[in-house]
Known about the structure:
Keywords: Oxidoreductase. One of its GO terms (molecular function) is oxidoreductase activity. This protein is an alpha/beta fold. The chain has helices spanning 16-27, 43-53, 67-81, 97-100, 105-133, 145-148, 160-180, 203-208, 211-219, 229-241; strands spanning 7-10, 31-36, 57-61, 86-89, 136-143, 184-191, 250-253. It has a seven-stranded parallel β-sheet with strand order 3-2-1-4-5-6-7, with helices on both faces.
Amino acid sequence: MKLQGKVALVLGAVKGIGRGIGLALAHEGVSLALTRHDWSESFGQMEIAFGHTGADHEIFDVNLLEIDAIERLIVRVKERFGRLDILINNIERGGWPVVHGAYVQDQWDLEMATTLRAKRWVFDLALPLLQSSGDGAVINFSSIAGVCGRSGPAAALFNDGYAAASRGISMLTETWARMGAPHVRVNEIMLGVMETRHAQGTRGWETVLTGKEKAAIVDHTLLGRTGTVEDVVKAVLFMLRDAPYMTGSVLRLDGGYTLGGEGVPPMPPGIL
């Protein structure tokens, strides 16, 4: 996909990974529909950052937990840009066990509604526009919580509902790839422990986890570090620009966390 002149809808673009992706697409010549709702203290920084790119963009204040609001969003995107080529399905909410403590129903419902339900309705309502593009692309974001759950060194990070919702995203990615084919590619990036999303720049990492707990997570990661926004941006650009034959796939971007904790011994001498 040639990105110059395309139109992208980037969810959760107010800061962190969403903002990083949006800025990278802006520098590639993509026109941007950007959403925000929470983190109002970051609104000003968001506006300045995208204003400096010179890219054609509009910021939409929308609560994606409201299906009617999603419908209005897609209508406004069509009216404003006339088309949609790329959907960056970057919306989630995952409570940390070490931050929130014992589960209550509201926290479970919020994690499911944000991480899973909102993604589904955005995709469903945006699909006709993406199909009209003739060369559309969707990137869903999930977490390795869907693989490892509340276990190991990352047990302090991943609530059960968030983990279950992340596992569900992979099923939706495959279903949506079938629905979108052949004109819309749908892929998924499964994130590990990343800055601004479970690592540096989050309340839990900066103020709650002990140095020992953070070291255990890094030591369990084969590459020996947490992920960066730049790591995610590079993966997104690869999927959009350089992987035209990829759809229905999951790219696990976790520095080898899910493979950590187990060594590979030398081959035994055998008996023959």
